[in-house]
Amino acid sequence: MTTPSRMPEPYGQGSGANLADILERVLDKGIVIAGDIRINLLDIELLTIKLRLIVASVDKAKEMGIDWWETDPALSSRARRDELTRENAELRERLARLEELEPSRAQEKEAP
């Protein structure tokens, strides 16, 4: 007499930790994956690629001192506004300096 074969349970079912628990733990603690790829030809380094990946929650990243997304204009509207404000101030300063130089150039042309 044969017994019907049981299909194996899908991955993760019946185990103590499910995907949500694992993800919560990773985001809470953070995980770092690092690696280097080097391509050499006859002891001459042609290419080096350094890979660094950090997976963590925003709060955990800030706790670790990582907050580059807040100052990247491509990711933050506030950073974009700040960059435009800074650029505008620099342009106004350059314009003011040019306008100060212009009267002295006009006087040079009038002199015999």
TrEMBL record:
<dbReference type="InterPro" id="IPR050530">
    <property type="entry name" value="GvpA"/>
</dbReference>
<keyword id="KW-0175">Coiled coil</keyword>
<protein>
    <recommendedName>
        <fullName>Gas vesicle structural protein</fullName>
    </recommendedName>
</protein>
<keyword id="KW-0304">Gas vesicle</keyword>
<dbReference type="InterPro" id="IPR018493">
    <property type="entry name" value="GvpA-like_CS"/>
</dbReference>
<comment type="similarity">
    <text>Belongs to the gas vesicle GvpA family.</text>
</comment>
<feature type="coiled-coil region">
    <location>
        <begin position="74"/>
        <end position="101"/>
    </location>
</feature>
<dbReference type="GO" id="GO:0005198">
    <property type="term" value="F:structural molecule activity"/>
</dbReference>
<dbReference type="Pfam" id="PF00741">
    <property type="entry name" value="Gas_vesicle"/>
</dbReference>
<dbReference type="GO" id="GO:0031411">
    <property type="term" value="C:gas vesicle"/>
</dbReference>
<dbReference type="GO" id="GO:0012506">
    <property type="term" value="C:vesicle membrane"/>
</dbReference>
<dbReference type="InterPro" id="IPR000638">
    <property type="entry name" value="Gas-vesicle_GvpA-like"/>
</dbReference>
